[in-house]
Specification:
- Helices cover about 40% and strands about 15% of the residues.
- With about 300 residues, it is an alpha/beta fold.
- The protein binds guanine.
- Guanine binds next to strand 4.
Length: about 300
């Protein structure tokens, strides 16, 4: 026991912190999916993802390019629809209806954000839940909530994989999710609950936030505030998952967690970049492969 304790805690009580390598884990998943795609191809099943982008938001361009690159890497097809900013909602809905009908399209992804004249909820709802590889359709979210089969939002699904593949137990743990967005916070809390954690969702109106986050065995930060989480928000030995992608005062990429401050007291932590980020695409590709067999 003493040896294990010595390994876990340094002389000054700091931890031997495990750095959770999202790049390596996402690569492992992509290689597994590559194998699955080849097996499907051998059976004559070709998987294709349709990616729709409206306008040319620079961040969206990068994400969309990487998603198509990911398809190429695992050996599935991708169709690309780059529509001008002034595309009407009706035109976009017509394209989605056409792709819903096509037997040679397995997944449909509409990159967000959309221009302000298009209603995102209406667009998401138009996607066939059987092709909703982003897991944003109300039917997909509802299915997740009541434990039925359906696509799961990629970033939170990726975080579960990061934890599992790093041998971090979730069952029975106190998990605090900071942030309540539809894309991350809400599905994250539902997934942790499905893994039998005790889950608290904290947000901008939470009182005594530090007291709440200090309870966490696993803390997931998804608030979009650069370096907000310092060591006084956490207890010793916490596992910290940082979903934030922000720029600090020097325009350097940083997360919602002040990594240098928090890292010494964690048992495990995800870096930014190279933590959660690469997992989103891996899980999107996972959903594309799953679309072949999913029944909703
Ligand atoms: N914009 C930011 N993240 C995402 C995502 O996961 N999916 C889509 N479609 N758009 C996004």
């Amino acid at each position: 026991f003493v040896l294990i304790q010595r390994w876990l805690c340094g002389k000054d009580g700091t931890y031997m912190t495990m750095l959770i390598d999202g790049k390596a884990i996402s690569m492992q998943i992509k290689d597994e999916l590559k194998q699955k795609a080849a097996e499907l191809k051998a059976k004559g099943i070709n998987v294709t993802l349709a990616v729709i982008q409206v306008g040319d938001n620079p961040a969206s361009c990068v994400y969309v390019r990487n998603k198509k690159k990911g398809c190429g890497y695992i050996g599935i097809g991708s169709l690309s629809y780059e529509l001008p900013e002034e595309t009407s909602q009706e035109e976009l809905l017509n394209l989605i209806r056409e792709l819903n009908e096509r037997d040679d399209v397995n997944g449909i992804l509409v990159q967000l954000p959309l221009p302000s004249h298009i209603d995102e909820d209406t667009v998401i709802k138009a996607i066939d839940p059987l092709k909703d590889v982003d897991g944003f359709h109300p039917q997909s979210v509802g299915a997740l909530c009541i434990g039925q089969s359906g696509f799961v939002s990629c970033t939170p699904a990726g975080i579960i994989q990061l934890l599992k593949r790093s041998n971090i137990d979730i069952a029975g743990k106190e998990c605090v999710v900071l942030g309540r967005s539809n894309i991350v916070g809400k599905p994250m809390s539902l997934l942790l609950l499905r893994e039998n954690a005790t889950v608290t969702i904290a947000h901008s109106r939470t009182k005594n936030l530090k007291e709440v986050t200090q309870r966490a065995d696993i803390l997931v930060a998804a608030v979009g505030k650069p370096k907000m989480i310092t060591k006084d928000y956490v207890k010793k030995g916490v596992v910290v998952v940082d979903v934030g992608i922000n720029r600090d005062e020097n325009n350097k990429l940083c997360g919602d967690v002040d990594f240098d401050d928090v890292e010494p007291v964690c048992s495990a932590i995800t870096p930014v970049p190279g933590g959660v980020g690469p997992m989103t695409i891996a899980m999107l590709l996972h959903n594309c492969i799953e679309s072949v067999s999913l029944k909703v």
